[in-house]
């Protein structure tokens, strides 16, 4: 059995929680002020990592509105980095008003991979705004070994 490490930043969720709480408190519940601050926050796609039964690991990234041409995947120093730029715009009519919504920003998420995983071992597929990256688990002979202290 091998251990696969993923990068999870719990502080980003905590920051978002406090930003929302303070915005609501100090903007007097003004929804427009909340939207303005949310528009300035960077895009941070959600990521899910699972180990499969067939000695593979699958990382899934939610990238709504992006095309595969907008996404870059790089492997460097045993680090898999998914990055890109989003620039989504929509126009519609609602209740007699024109509504225009825009979302833009750069993003980057990184995973540390085990030693010995090669670029050709990594498979990526994007469908309906969901990027799925599959790579092999770290072989048992390359797993960290515990050294006892004498």
From TrEMBL:
PROSITE patterns listed in its UniProt record: CS, SHSP
Chain ranges of the SHSP domain: 38-150
Source taxon at top rank: Eukaryota
SUPFAM superfamilies named in the record: HSP20-like chaperones (SSF49764)
CDD domains in the cross-refs: ACD_sHsps-like (cd06464)
InterPro entries: A-crystallin/Hsp20_dom, CS_dom, HSP20-like_chaperone, Small_HSP
All residue ranges annotated as the CS domain in the record: 42-150
Keywords: Stress response
PANTHER family attached to this UniProt entry: HEAT-SHOCK PROTEIN 20 FAMILY MEMBER
Entry similarity comment: Belongs to the small heat shock protein (HSP20) family.
Name assigned to this protein: Small heat shock protein
Organism in which the protein naturally occurs: Coniophora puteana (strain RWD-64-598)
